[in-house]
């Protein structure tokens, strides 16, 4: 029971971290139609900025400075990059953000090196919050859950209950009308892109203590974030949240399963396996193929529902 409850909490935590990162990507795509390949790189910058600020000032200062710095970088990318290539279509936008991935990674390697940096949990949150059947649940993980839940609520309230949220949504579908009403549509798009980068930077501040901070962290987490966005549905914040929790739980619980797909059919008298490739695959323990399960689910949902769980656009 204690192991199950611990795995549930860890799965929820990992899922919420995925949502923190994927929500910014979803927000940018839903409002601007731009699939930002460099989103995970902005997340990496947020983690490194937080490490530097926490080293010289404090973790709490980094919690403010790092997302703000990522937002400024995001605004610069939109104004001086995406806005200039936008008239060439989505292919040019994709290639531009794809090139940013390598530029940011090389800059990180030049400034901070290739070895992991010691980004530690703040002392004020370094204590056990709960004692669950003899297992300690750290206070910092509770703080991570609190921040991610607060971010989810804030995004929803901003888009659904504020005037600026209505302007942002209207600018997506009727930019000419929004411009005729006196609003600066390019500035709205810049604000949206910068806001998405702020969310990525915040995820870097919070998740940097959970994962290892090194120059390859964007490569490690970037693919699973795109899986979350595609599985949940491009442009759907609710689908992004559901997909994040599913992927977090799936990868967390997969490491506990030592059985294989072939073992499921053994009680029925069916023997799956053999010396062929398919037989070897179904005989593999689930724990070994756990990292592949999210990608298999993505392929499956693209066959069944190309728009994802709650998407409104074709992927």
Condensed summary:
By secondary structure, this protein is mainly alpha-helical.
Task: Annotate the secondary structure layout.
Layout (H helix, E strand, L loop, with lengths): L1 H31 L6 H18 L2 H27 L4 H23 L15 E5 L2 E4 H23 L1 H11 L1 H6 L4 H23 L9 H16 L4 H18 L6 H5 L11 H6 L3 H4 L3 H12 L11
Antiparallel strand pairs: 1-2
Helix pairs in contact: 1-5, 1-8, 1-9, 1-10, 2-3, 2-4, 2-8, 2-9, 3-8, 5-6, 5-8, 9-10, 9-14
Strand portion, in percent?
A: under 5%
Roughly what percent helix? Answer: over 70%
**Count of DSSP E strands?**
2
N/C terminus separation: 40 Å
Oligomer: single chain
Count of alpha/pi helices: 14
Query: Unreliable runs, pLDDT <50, ≥5 residues?
Result: none
Give the CATH topology.
ABC transporter involved in vitamin B12 uptake, BtuC
Strand order of the largest sheet: 1-2
Biggest beta sheet summary: 2 strands, antiparallel
Shape from CA axes? globular
Query: What's the number of domains?
Result: 1
CATH architectural category = Orthogonal Bundle
């Amino acid at each position: 029971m204690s192991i199950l409850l611990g795995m549930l909490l860890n799965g929820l935590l990992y899922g919420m971290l995925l949502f923190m990162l994927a929500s910014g990507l979803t927000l940018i795509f839903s409002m601007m139609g731009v699939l930002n390949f460099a989103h995970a790189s902005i997340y990496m910058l947020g983690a490194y900025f937080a490490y530097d600020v926490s080293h010289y000032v404090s973790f709490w200062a980094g919690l403010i400075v790092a997302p703000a710095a990522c937002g400024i970088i995001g605004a610069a990318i939109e104004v001086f990059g995406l806005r200039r290539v936008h008239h060439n279509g989505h292919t040019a936008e994709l290639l531009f953000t794809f090139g940013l991935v390598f530029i940011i990674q090389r800059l990180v390697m030049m400034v901070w090196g290739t070895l992991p940096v010691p980004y530690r949990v703040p002392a004020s949150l370094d204590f056990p919050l709960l004692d669950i059947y003899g297992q300690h649940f750290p206070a910092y993980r509770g703080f991570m859950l609190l921040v991610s839940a607060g971010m989810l609520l804030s995004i929803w309230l901003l888009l659904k209950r504020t005037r600026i949220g209505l302007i942002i949504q209207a600018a997506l579908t009727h930019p000419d009308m929004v411009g005729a009403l006196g609003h600066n549509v390019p500035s709205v798009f810049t604000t949206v892109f910068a806001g998405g980068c702020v969310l990525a930077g915040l995820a870097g501040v919070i998740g940097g203590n959970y994962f290892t901070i090194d120059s390859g962290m964007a490569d490690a987490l970037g693919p699973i974030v795109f899986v979350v966005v595609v599985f949940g549905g491009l442009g759907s914040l609710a689908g992004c949240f559901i997909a994040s929790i599913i992927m977090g739980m799936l990868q967390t619980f997969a490491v506990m399963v030592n059985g294989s797909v072939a073992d499921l059919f053994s009680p029925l008298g069916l023997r799956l396996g053999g010396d062929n490739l398919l037989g070897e695959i179904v005989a593999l323990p689930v724990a070994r193929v756990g990292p592949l399960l999210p990608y298999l689910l993505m392929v499956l949902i693209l066959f069944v529902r190309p728009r994802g769980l709650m998407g409104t656009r074709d992927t």
